[in-house]
């Protein structure tokens, strides 16, 4: 299909070698390629505004500026059913008639572990996978089901949120650092609960560590590092050790100790995960 990256390549071909492209392309100019200097310019502007604040002129009117609410703030709660109780009961009866004794249990009514055990074959994950990471019962259910599509849905949402909300990767987003800290802390606790790291967090760290200043969300970032799966030494060196080394040799003693503690927990987590699976150990 006419996807953005394909249109961008075809536009370049048509610009320099028009005889090679015979199809019609949209005339509207789009920004197909992201500017690699964006994060650096955003960091420079943040420092400039911090040291030389510019007073905004007062405008006429009483309208208050609208604050940008995080999408995942609302998604972290299990959504209630949009139907009323009568319609919900009717749907459950119809579902039972069509499929015998099989009935779906509303996930928003799941409150206790005994309910989970009694209805474990009649549960469905909510449409908002973000709500799973804050619900221990759904995390237990996630461990029992082992459905690959559930993990893919969770990884897709998590990867998108980490990339879109990262304060040091997104321009003019440093004022939301506290919210991002809470979010990273929630993700870390979920990894500890499941005893495994998320591939989305691994990808996020490898992409963002070269841009990280070592100060923003320091504790949360280093905790996520402790759940990165170990790979070969050349890969770990280029993607993890080198970015951390640039900060390690120019930082405070506290930061050095925090990095060493994180790497120690990384090795400890890897040993715990592979204690009963020695055949899956990578070659270093």
TrEMBL record:
Cellular localisation: Chromosome, Centromere; Nucleus
Kindly state which keywords UniProt assigns to this record, in alphabetical order: Centromere, Chromosome, Nucleus
Give a GO cellular-component term: inner kinetochore
Q: Name one GO biological process term.
A: CENP-A containing chromatin assembly
- Mainly localized where? nucleus
* InterPro entries membership: CENP-I
Family statement: Belongs to the CENP-I/CTF3 family.
Q: What name is this protein filed under?
A: CENPI protein
Give the organism, scientific name: Semnornis frantzii
């Amino acid at each position: 299909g006419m996807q953005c990256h394909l249109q961008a390549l075809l536009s370049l071909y048509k610009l320099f070698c028009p005889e090679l492209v015979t199809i019609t392309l949209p005339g509207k100019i789009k920004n197909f390629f992201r500017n690699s200097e964006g994060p650096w310019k955003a960091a420079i502007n943040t420092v400039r505004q911090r040291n030389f604040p510019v007073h905004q002129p007062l405008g006429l009117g009483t309208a208050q500026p609208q604050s940008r609410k995080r999408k995942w703030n609302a998604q972290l709660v299990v959504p209630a059913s949009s139907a009323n109780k009568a319609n919900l009961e009717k749907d459950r009866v119809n579902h039972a008639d069509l499929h015998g004794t099989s009935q779906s249990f509303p996930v928003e009514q799941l409150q206790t572990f005994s309910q989970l055990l009694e209805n474990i074959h009649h549960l469905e994950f909510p449409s908002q996978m973000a709500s799973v990471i804050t619900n221990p019962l759904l995390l237990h259910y996630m461990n029992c089901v082992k459905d690959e599509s559930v993990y893919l849905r969770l990884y897709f949402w998590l990867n998108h949120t980490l990339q879109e909300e990262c304060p040091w990767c997104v321009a003019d987003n440093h004022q939301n650092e506290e919210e991002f800290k809470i979010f990273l802390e929630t993700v870390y606790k979920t990894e500890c609960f499941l005893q495994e790291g998320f591939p989305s967090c691994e990808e996020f760290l490898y992409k963002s560590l070269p841009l990280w200043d070592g100060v923003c969300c320091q504790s949360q970032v280093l905790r996520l590092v402790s759940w990165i799966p170990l790979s070969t030494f050349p890969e770990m060196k280029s993607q993890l050790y080198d970015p951390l080394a640039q900060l390690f040799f120019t930082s405070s003693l506290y930061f050095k100790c925090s990095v060493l503690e994180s790497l120690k927990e990384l090795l400890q987590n890897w040993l715990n995960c592979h204690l009963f699976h020695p055949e899956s150990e990578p070659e270093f």
